[in-house]
Structures are given as structure tokens and as C-alpha cells.
Write a structure and sequence with these properties.
The complex is a heterotetramer. Chain B is mostly helical. Helices cover 74% and strands 1% of the residues of chain B. Chain C is mainly alpha-helical. Chain C contains four helices and no strands. The relative contact order of chain C is 0.12. The chains are: A mainly alpha, B mainly alpha, C mainly alpha, D mainly alpha.
Chain lengths: 78, 582, 114, 248
């Protein structure tokens, strides 16, 4: 179970960094946060799971989406 | 109010003051808001001086007060230690912060938000100086960092956001490496405080072997990046040059020294500590020389001062590293650590003074280029400064950094060269002294009266005058520099008793401060400086300096130098722990 | 052993994102990823010594190590605060330089300064 | 010129990654047995010392409460710094929450016309429920998983729901940035006073003031949870509401 989630995390992290569209990157990043929250719950760490879900997926996604909304969505260069 | 509570005053009083400042910002407007804000600033910056005065007899007698925060169980709770080193670093932090805040009242950023973040930064400085718990050091460095990123970005100059962003990214990444190092040490020992980790490591075979060495190098490299030693200095020039003047003074004066002395608490206790200290000492000596050569090449006045900060911190780290290598409780080690702290304290004073005076002058003249700005002395007089406080303060600061006798730079550099005599580092520091004198002759040219073919004399923008608070803070720092210089031997004896406790009587002090031998050395440095300055203003000299200025400095370079510094440190620790070699 | 290798790979991907990608928002993505990787490392290794949640209701025996969990709460929140601040600065950089590419931003700001 | 620069940057990346890999491998891949000394002590004495059955809350608000204060300060500084940096830029999106009046009429038109029925119904109804859940997570931190921070962030999302879903006429004061800034500042001040209260009753800075007295010591942790929850909720709510540029 842990290994499966870690493999998924790696795939999502790669997609976050490689995708042209920053908004897709943000959504993939909040998926990374959510998956790590599920992993924490599985590893008997509910406090960290709630924090990771609420703070990691919640607040940082809001801030990322706001930053991209206020600026530019396409990632031009490499 | 038991002793442990008064000891913690320098930490929680500024936080209380910051809370008052933020309440003033949210609740009150106009005069009431100002009143509450200044009440918070008084609580935050004024009262802790009483706690320091109360603590003095305790640390003078060589005692140290070590408490667990809130009397919880020591294995899990947070340990704080109030001893001579802590007292001195808090004194350093508060003196520069108070002078810088007075300057900010006159010319710097204003408002309750600024006061709150400034107070929180001061609280983080005091906490970093006293903590002996590794994860609490992580939190204190993060609080200090985040406060300084925002204060750097407050100056609204175009480059300030890029400087603050680079500083933030490099420090945040370094702190993640710190967490990995902390993970390694917690995994081996199960303890959080330095003593607990040290005992745990010593009970393991080979002191924990490769994992302990790698974890220690991760922790040391992450903290060393805030000290801007040679490979890891890339972020500092932009951040210090583009920050508001009051913040540049605090950044250069205190923010690169407190992590250094917090690191000395770790390296004094952990088994592989002296080896890491030795390598950082060597890196410090190289930093002193390289920092000066780059500083000599700079055009922008504040960037020149920022590179000087790197070079001067190189002096401090050279002596500090050698002190740790020998062990602070040996007489030679104690003399080195005393010289290192003395120079750190004096550098905080004269570098803060230089940043403030140069800031006032360049703001008034609207020009920051060393080659274009001339006749600033006349301009200051015309801007209504009857008593030339800024000019005199600048001269005293420049003399102090070039180690000219009556001022404090001379006393601390004499102590440094006495403690380091006979080592190659002393040679490097001697050459760096010559470079410093040359670059400060170049910097002081902005004040010289205008010659016929020189560019137009600086004219201060209409209506700009110098605020009395600005003059007061500059005058205060200049007097402290002079007093520090005259009372050199007395103060170094005082610092030695605080640091050494029992070993202090045996340790030797530089015999006679104004001895013929020291004066001869100063004359040599001054002559070398003038010759180097003349060389630098020749055609090939300018070409070489242009080359140094144009070297590529990218964002990636910061991280590459961090990783190479990290790998170098762990290799060094690995080979040092294998004396036999394979 | 495989979990630790995957975690090391996740950390390296995040670090590669910080140093190699030229878009500063991607660099902040990388910072968030390496922060998550270290937090997972702490919790994963900390949970090997027990098999129940550290809430001491009656009859609970060998509990997972609560110390790394308490420390990682702090690390997660600090990571998010650093990310929020980095994004505010990236926003201001975009407004002054018109692009997220770190090299162009540096070139534009150097042209303005000199 | 571009080709050479690209090669240099590739080499730098490769070198940096190699150095990091070499240094970090021993720490990541070591299978040294995890220390159990801290866990054993807490299992035996955790509940007795702090009164909280949730050991993570016991550490996080009892043994190492100073770290939590540091964390709260980082959050406060980050929120005020982020808002300060954005507000100074005077952007249309940012204009909505400048330091001066934050009345509801300055929301930029771009946001107003995109409000679908879905947002009105969902957020309008869900707001209070999320707030109640946030308060529950906050106040029961010492028994069930959760606590100050988690409850605070859930409350912040509740505030965002209310700010999104409120109709023109019946909006509560809870969504005005000025009000949230006041709650945050008051929360921070009361957190410091709660921390200092330990000194008055002689159990030291961040000590448990009720340790000696009759009341069960866990109520100190509940107070800390409540104060931190309010402060975090108001702080993050303030940032999110400000970033939304004051939707009607």
C-alpha cells in the first residue's frame, strides 16, 4: 500500500514539474498533498493527515490558483 | 518571577511587543495606534535590557542556567541555556537592533506592520542564541528567515524582490536539508537536545559512523548558508544591498552572526564538531580574501559594503573555526573564540554605522555609483547638517574597518592576528586588511570636494533634510566604535571571562594593544592599501575589476555552490574520521 | 527498502525541479515537493516501531512514535507559509518583469539597474 | 550562445544532483532501528503530565509548546507579509483589500459576472456546517485527532465558503477583512498572555499554569487549542478573502 502511494506520488510530482499548463501543475500538486494525507492516515498519523489535507491541499492550492489567476497560465520556456 | 523566567525575557518580551504592534495595526488608527505601537516597541526593545543587566552577575560568575521550557520532561521538552555566550550574542543583537530601529524612526520604513516584524526578528535572534534544542533551532531560524525576507522585500526597489526571492528559495531549500540532517541524528540517538544527541552518538560504535557524519554536515551546511561563508555567499550581496538601510545594518550586523554562534553550541558538543569547525575556519580565511577582492571591484556603494560584510565575517569564521578545532576550553582556543566574538561585535557596530551613513548620503544625493558621486560632504552641509554628524560618523566607520588605531576595528583585528599568529590564515587576513583599506579609500572618494574635470557635484533633491533620529543613531554608533577601540583590552578580558569561565586566567591576551609591533603592522597595512588603491585606479586595474564584476552569477549557481559545499564538508569529515586512510 | 528508494527519488525530483526548471512557479512547486518528501520520510520511519494511533484510550499498547508527528505538524505549516510568501514575491516579479522565467527577470532587472 | 548556456546549465544541474545524491543516500537508506525511548516515556507519563489523551497534542501544545508559538508567528508574519507585498502593488485584483476601506463595492467586475447558481447554493448552505466542523476539530484536539491548527484551517475554509456564498444583502461581518484582521491580532495577543500565564503561577514560561491547582491540567491545552484555532482561522481566512478581491 505504501509503495503504491509512493509510486503515484512520483508520477504526480513529475507531471507537476513537466506540464506546460501551470494550473494543471497546481491540481497535480494538490493531488500529491491529498495522497500523502491518505498515506499518513494509513501510517497511524491522523493529526498529520488532517493538517496535510487541510493546510497542504487546502491553503497552498488556493494561493497557487490565485497567483496563476493574477498572472499568466502558460509556461513558455523549458 | 523565578530566575528562569527573567532569563527568557529577551525572547518573549519582543513577541509581546510585536503582538501589541499588530493589535495597534488592526484596532486603532491615528494617535492611539501610534501610542500602542510605540508602547509595544518599548516593551520589545527597551525592557529586555533590564533582563540583560539582571543576568550579568550570574554569567560573570561563570554559572550557566539551563532550563527545560515550562518544566516539562527533558527528553521531549525544549532545553534553553543562558550562559556567557548567550548573554554576549543577545547583547550584540539588541544593541544593533535598537540603533537600527532609531534610524528607521528617522528615515527607514515605518508603520505598525514594520515594527511588529522587526520585533519578531529580534525575538528570533535572542531565541537562536539561547536554544540548545535542534528542532527548536530549526523553528527559530525559520522565524528569523521569514521576517528578514519580508523586510528585504519592503524596500520596493526593482531588484529587491529578486534578491528576496533568491534568498528565500536558497534558505528554504537549505532548511529542508537541515530537516534531513535532524532526521539522521534523531534516528541514531532518539534525543532532540544537543547534549542528548552527543551522548547518544558517543554510545554508538564509531560515534554513529557515516550516518552521523553526513547528518552533521547537512545541519552545518544548512546553518552555514545563513552565515555566508565562502562557497555559500551568493545570495548575500543582492539582499543586503537592496534592503532598506536600517535592515541592511541589522542583516549585516547580526543576522549572519547569530547562526554562527548557535552553530558553535552544536560543534562544541558533538563528537565530529571540531573537524567541521576546522574546515569552516579554513573557508573563513579564504572568504576574507576573496570577499575583499570582489568588494574592491564593485560600483554600487551598498553592494561594496555587502561584499565587505562577507569578507569581515570571513575574519570572524577563521578565528571561530580555529577556536573550535582546538576546543574552546583550552587557553589557545579560548583566546581565538574571544577574538572571534570581539570582531563580530565590533563589526556589527562599524558595519551598521557604514550602512547607515552611506545610506543617508546616497539617499540624499540620489546616486549610488562610487565613480559618479562626488562632493557629498558639501551636499550634506547644504542639506542643513551644520554639525557634520554623517560625515564624521562615516570617517570613523571607515577608519574602524581599516583597523586604524584609536577605533574598535584596530583592537579586534589586533586580537585576531595575535590569536592566529603563525598560521597561514593570519597571512590571508593581513592581505585582506590591505584590500579593505584600498576599497575604503575608493569609497570615501564620494565625500571629497569636486575637482575641475570631475563629474558634476552631488546636489541633494529639494526639500530632503536629515532627520534628527538619523543623526542620533549614527552618532551613537560612532561613539560606541570609539569607546570599543579605547577600551579594547578591558572589553576582551570581559568577553574572555564570560566565554571561558574557569579557563580564563590562564588564557593569554594580546600583551600591549598599542605596542610598537602592532603599530608597525598597521602602518604596513595602510601603506599597502594606498598602493593597491593607486594600482586599482590604473587602466589595467579598472579592466580587471570590470572582469570581476561581470562574472556570471545565476540562480542555479547558488544551489550548485550549496551542494558542492555540502559534499565537500561531508567528504572532509569522512576523511578526518579515518586518520589511517585506506 | 523499496519505500526509501522511492522517497529518495521523490526528493531528487523535487530538488531537480528547483534547480533546473526556469519558471519560478515550477521552482516553488519543487520546494513544496521536497518539503512533502521529508515529512513523509519522518512519518514513514517513525511508524515502524508501533501499530496503533498515538491516542491513549484504554488498553492501547505499543503506539507509533508521536514525536516526529508533532514535529512534522510544524514543518508542514512552515512549508506552506514559505510557499505563500514565495508566491507573493513571484507575483510582484511577474508584475515588474512580465515573465516567470528567472533568467529573463534577472536580465531585465540588471538592465534597469545599470 | 544559447547552446553553450544550455549545456552549462545542464552540467550544473547534473553536478548538483550528483552531489546531493551522494550526501543524502546514507541518511535515506539507513535501516538503523528507530529509537523508542521517547515513545516509551510518553506512553507511560504522557497522559499524566499533560492530561491530553492524544499524545501528539500533548507534545505539540505541552512539552514543545514553544515550537507551536514559533509556528504561529511564522504564519502571522507570512500572512501580513503576503498581504503587504500584494497590496502595495495596487493591482485591480489586489485593490479590493487595500489597507483603507474594504467595502464590498470594489470587487472587480470580472469576478462578479462568473458566479453560477452552483456556487450560490453549495457555499451558502455549506458555510455554517464547515464552521461547526472546524470548531469541533479545534476544541476536541486533546481527545481525538485534530487541534488548533487543523481546526483553524477548516474554520478558514468555512469563512471562505461564507464569503463566496453570501447574497448581496445578508452578508455577515465575519467575511470583512478588517474584522478578520482584528480577530487574528487579538488571538495572537491572547496566545502570548496564555503562554506568559504559566510564569505567574510559578510553573515557568509556557508551563502549565493549572498544574498545581484543582482544575484538570488538560483545560490549559483546550484554551491553547481554542486561541490558536481562532488566530489561524482568522489569519488564513483573511488571506483567502483578501486574495479573492472581495467577492460580493
Amino acid at each position: 500500500m505504501t509503495t503504491l502511494i509512493l509510486v503515484l506520488l512520483i508520477i504526480l510530482a513529475l507531471y507537476t514539474l513537466l506540464s506546460r499548463d501551470l494550473l494543471h501543475g497546481t491540481i497535480a500538486l494538490s493531488a500529491v498533498s491529498l495522497l500523502s494525507a491518505i498515506l499518513f492516515y494509513y501510517l497511524y498519523a491522523p493529526d498529520v493527515a488532517i493538517t496535510e489535507a487541510a493546510v497542504g491541499a487546502g491553503v497552498s492550492t488556493v494561493v497557487f490558483v490565485w497567483a496563476i489567476r493574477a498572472t499568466e497560465r502558460r509556461d513558455s520556456g523549458k | 518571577m523565578k530566575p528562569p523566567d527573567i532569563m527568557m525575557a529577551p525572547v518573549y518580551l519582543p513577541i509581546l511587543g510585536a503582538a501589541l504592534a499588530f493589535c495597534a495595526k488592526a484596532f486603532f488608527q491615528g494617535r492611539l495606534g501610534k501610542g500602542v505601537e510605540y508602547a509595544g516597541v518599548f516593551v520589545g526593545l527597551g525592557l529586555p535590557w533590564l533582563a540583560l543587566a539582571w543576568g550579568l552577575p550570574l554569567v560573570l560568575s561563570g554559572e550557566a542556567l539551563q532550563i527545560v521550557m515550562g518544566n516539562w520532561f527533558g527528553g521531549v521538552g525544549i532545553l534553553y541555556r543562558f550562559d556567557g555566550l548567550g548573554w554576549l550574542v543577545i547583547l550584540l543583537g539588541y544593541s544593533v537592533a535598537t540603533a537600527a530601529y532609531i534610524y528607521a524612526l528617522g528615515a527607514g520604513p515605518r508603520g505598525p506592520g514594520f515594527s511588529g516584524i522587526f520585533l519578531i526578528q529580534t525575538a528570533a535572534l535572542a531565541a537562536t542564541a539561547m536554544t540548545v534544542d535542534l528542532f527548536n533551532l530549526f523553528v527559530c531560524l525559520e522565524v528569523m528567515g521569514i521576517a528578514s525576507y519580508i523586510l528585504v522585500a519592503k524596500s520596493e526597489k526593482p531588484g529587491a524582490f529578486l534578491a528576496a526571492f533568491s534568498y528565500l528559495m536558497v534558505s528554504a531549500t537549505a532548511m529542508v536539508f537541515f530537516l534531513i540532517g535532524f532526521f539522521g541524528l534523531y534516528r541514531l540517538t532518539g534525543a532532540l537536545s544537543y547534549q542528548g544527541i552527543a551522548e547518544g552518538l558517543r554510545s554508538l560504535p564509531e560515534n554513529g559512523g557515516i550516518i552521523a557524519l553526513v547528518s552533521l554536515s547537512l545541519v552545518v551546511a544548512a546553518v552555514a548558508i545563513r552565515v555566508a561563508v565562502m562557497p555559500l555567499y551568493g545570495w548575500l550581496p543582492d539582499a543586503h544591498a537592496l534592503a532598506p538601510h536600517a535592515i541592511s545594518a541589522v542583516l549585516s550586523g547580526v543576522l549572519i552572526k547569530t547562526p554562527l554562534f548557535a552553530l558553535s553550541r552544536i560543534l562544541m558538543v558533538l563528537p565530529a564538531g571540531p573537524e567541521a569547525g576546522r574546515l569552516m575556519g579554513y573557508a573563513g580565511a579564504v572568504t576574507a580574501l576573496a570577499g575583499v577582492t570582489i568588494a574592491l571591484a564593485q560600483k554600487d556603494t551598498k553592494r561594496l559594503l555587502a561584499y565587505h560584510s562577507i569578507s569581515q565575517i570571513g575574519y570572524v569564521v577563521a578565528a571561530w573555526g580555529a577556536a573550535l578545532a582546538l576546543g574552546v576550553h583550552t587557553p589557545a582556543g579560548l583566546a581565538l573564540m574571544t577574538a572571534a566574538f570581539l570582531h563580530a561585535l565590533y563589526h556589527a557596530l562599524f558595519k551598521g554605522l557604514l550602512f547607515l551613513t552611506i545610506g543617508t548620503t546616497t539617499d540624499l544625493a540620489g546616486e549610488r555609483d562610487v565613480y559618479l558621486l562626488r562632493g557629498a560632504a558639501g551636499m550634506l552641509r547644504r542639506a542643513g547638517e551644520k554639525v557634520p554628524v554623517t560625515l564624521v560618523s562615516f570617517i570613523m566607520g571607515a577608519l574602524a574597518i581599516s583597523a586604524i588605531p584609536p577605533l574598535n576595528g584596530y583592537a579586534s583585528k589586533a586580537a585576531l592576528s595575535y590569536a592566529l599568529k603563525g598560521t597561514w590564515q593570519d597571512g590571508f587576513l593581513f592581505l585582506a586588511g590591505i584590500g579593505t583599506t584600498a576599497s575604503f579609500i575608493k569609497l570615501s572618494r564620494i565625500y571629497w570636494p569636486v575637482r575641475k574635470r570631475a563629474p558634476a557635484p552631488a546636489e541633494s533633491a529639494a526639500g530632503k533634510t536629515i532627520h534628527p533620529a538619523v543623526q542620533f543613531s549614527q552618532g551613537l554608533l560612532a561613539l560606541l566604535c570609539l569607546a570599543g577601540g579605547l577600551a579594547g583590552p578591558l572589553l576582551s578580558r570581559f568577553v574572555m571571562t564570560l566565554l571561558g569561565g574557569d579557563a580564563s586566567p590562564a588564557a593569554s591576551l594580546p600583551p600591549q594593544l598599542f605596542s610598537l609591533q602592532n603599530l608597525q603592522k598597521t602602518g604596513l597595512v595602510a601603506a599597502g592599501g594606498i598602493i593597491l588603491f593607486l594600482l586599482a585606479s590604473t587602466k589595467p586595474g579598472k579592466g580587471l575589476m570590470h572582469l570581476i564584476r561581470r562574472r556570471p552569477r545565476g540562480f542555479q549557481g547558488l544551489f550548485l555552490s550549496f551542494t558542492l559545499g555540502l559534499a565537500g564538508l561531508s567528504l572532509w569529515l569522512f576523511f578526518q574520521s579515518r586518520p589511517v586512510g585506506w | 527498502m523499496l519505500d526509501r528508494l522511492l522517497l529518495l527519488l521523490l526528493f531528487l525530483i523535487g530538488f531537480w525541479g528547483i534547480i533546473a526548471r526556469r519558471n519560478i512557479i515550477k521552482k516553488i512547486f519543487g520546494l513544496t515537493i521536497i518539503n512533502s518528501a521529508v515529512v513523509i520520510l519522518f512519518i514513514l520511519e517513525g511508524s515502524r516501531i508501533g501499530n496503533s494511533t498515538p491516542i491513549m484510550s484504554s488498553g492501547i499498547a505499543d503506539v507509533v512514535d508521536p514525536v516526529p508527528q508533532a514535529l512534522m505538524l510544524t514543518a508542514i505549516v512552515i512549508g506552506v507559509c514559505i510557499t505563500a510568501l514565495a508566491l507573493a514575491m513571484a507575483f510582484r516579479l511577474y508584475r515588474s518583469a512580465g515573465t516567470f522565467d528567472i533568467d529573463e527577470i534577472r536580465r531585465k532587472i540588471h538592465d534597469e539597474a545599470s | 550562445m544559447m547552446k553553450r548556456q544550455r549545456v552549462i546549465s545542464f552540467l550544473q544541474t547534473f553536478l548538483a544532483l550528483g552531489a546531493v545524491l551522494a550526501v543524502v543516500i546514507p541518511v535515506f537508506l539507513s535501516d538503523f532501528p528507530w529509537p523508542t525511548s521517547a515513545r516509551d516515556y510518553l506512553e507511560a507519563h504522557g497522559v499524566a503530565d499533560s492530561g491530553a489523551r492524544n499524545l501528539v497534542s500533548a507534545i505539540y501544545l505541552g512539552y514543545r509548546a514553544f515550537d507551536t508559538l514559533g509556528e504561529t508567528i511564522v504564519l502571522l508574519v507570512a500572512v501580513s507579509g503576503t498581504i503587504g507585498i500584494i497590496a502595495q502593488s495596487g493591482v485591480s485584483l489586489a485593490r479590493g483589500f487595500g489597507e483603507e476601506a474594504l467595502d464590498r463595492k470594489t470587487a472587480s467586475p470580472r469576478l462578479r459576472h462568473r458566479r453560477t447558481e452552483l456556487i450560490d447554493v453549495v457555499t451558502g448552505k455549506l458555510g455554517p456546517i464547515v464552521l461547526i466542523f472546524g470548531l469541533y476539530v479545534m476544541l476536541f484536539g486533546h481527545l481525538s485527532p485534530g487541534g488548533g491548527f487543523q481546526g483553524g484551517v477548516v474554520i478558514a475554509s468555512g469563512i471562505v465558503f461564507i464569503a463566496l456564498g453570501s447574497k448581496n444583502e445578508d452578508s455577515t461581518r465575519l467575511q470583512e477583512a478588517g474584522m478578520l484582521a482584528r480577530i487574528e491580532a487579538a488571538g495572537f495577543l491572547s496566545l502570548i498572555l496564555a503562554a506568559l500565564s504559566g510564569m505567574v503561577t510559578g510553573s515557568g514560561f509556557f508551563g502549565n499554569p493549572l498544574a498545581g491547582m484543582g482544575a484538570s491540567p488538560v483545560s490549559y491545552i483546550v484554551i491553547l487549542n481554542a486561541v490558536i484555532g481562532l488566530k489561524v482561522g482568522a489569519g488564513i481566512g483573511f488571506m483567502c478573502v483578501a486574495m479573492m478581491g472581495r467577492v460580493e
